[in-house]
Amino acid sequence: MDVTELWTNIVVWLRNHAPVTAAALKPPAPLDLAELESELDVQLPADLREWWSCCGGTDTGVLADVLPPFYTPYSPRGALEAWRGHRELWAAKWERPACAYYAGSAGSSFHPAWIPIAGDGFSDELVVDLRPGPLHGCVLEWEQEAGHVDRPEWRGVSDMLAAVHRSLTEGSPAGHSHPTVTEDGRLDWQIR
Question: Bias category Basic and acidic residues: which stretches (predicted)?
Fold first, then answer.
């Protein structure tokens, strides 16, 4: 399945099984991705561009834990705002981040080539790693309090969405998380 089909199927599953989570998701808003790429000084991977063509994130402050273990997707505008926040917070290390050169490798300060795609509401985020190398485009989990990333969670946005779709439809784990639905109709990922 392509990214659009995966996202569509995830949203349909959410409407049928976790309607409160589904209701928090917004349709995509028009945004010039070329403008976004220009400010970020990167070229977005095709799977991220495609996802943002159909995923509008949520309203500011609204959490919808669609991505395991507890991440709410950002719209392109939300991603840009999060990236700008990191640029301000990490200004002293922005030009020379404490990170290895290649995508998927460790880092202990936020790297300008990490594009936030989802957040937990408390400054931890999933980021797409656009540093060079074979893992270019992989998805990392940025831990703000510890100030680091670990190994890649997925090889790209399409792999992430495929894992979420498989987990929702088959009940298999997505990474170290299993999907459950709360009594009030919210998707909740249980860490095991």
Answer: 181-192
Place of tokens 């399409």: 158
Domain ranges, ordered by start, for the chain = 3-176
Alpha-carbon distance of 189 to 173, in angstroms, equals 9
Q: Which two tokens stand for residue 31?
A: 């945004």
My answer on whether omega of the bond before 69 falls inside 30° of 0, hence cis, is yes
Q: Percentages helix, strand, coil for the chain, rounded to the nearest 5?
A: 35, 20, 45
The superfamily CATH assigns to domain 3-176 is SMI1/KNR4-like (3.40.1580.10)
Contacts of 51 (CB under 8 A, 6+ apart): 3, 7, 117, 157, 161
Please list the residues that pair with 128 across neighbouring strands. 115, 139
- Using CA atoms, how far residue 15 sits from 78, 110, 185, 190, in Å, is 23, 35, 9, 20
- Angle in degrees, CA 133, 118, 16, rounded to 5: 120
pLDDT in tens, 57-103: 999 889 999 999 999 999 999 999 999 999 999 999 999 999 999 99
Q: Tell how far CA 163 is from the center of its chain.
A: 13
For residues 62 and 9, what is the distance between their CA atoms, to the nearest angstrom? 22
